[in-house]
């Protein structure tokens, strides 16, 4: 079986725990899965340094999960790149990232 590639769309702060737990369950059960969490709008808030989810996020990142936040959102909300742990990357546009990943064959999930 070809390893799956899954992109999670996170745009609501309230859904951060749900998304992180979904990601954890997925990587625990599906060997070789590649996962990217794309956050924009309110979703970026729950990924900031010092959030209550920091420990789980770090464990997931160490397991290969990629976290990215939208530069458009950061700019519009006056949030600094330095407000996030070092393993959180940025993309110019979360929406474009989601479209590109789907065009590349990634499975799209929005809990």
TrEMBL record:
InterPro entries associated with the record: DsrEFH-like, Sulphur_relay_DsrE/F-like
Domain of life: Archaea
Protein name: DsrE/DsrF-like family protein
Organism: Methanoculleus caldifontis
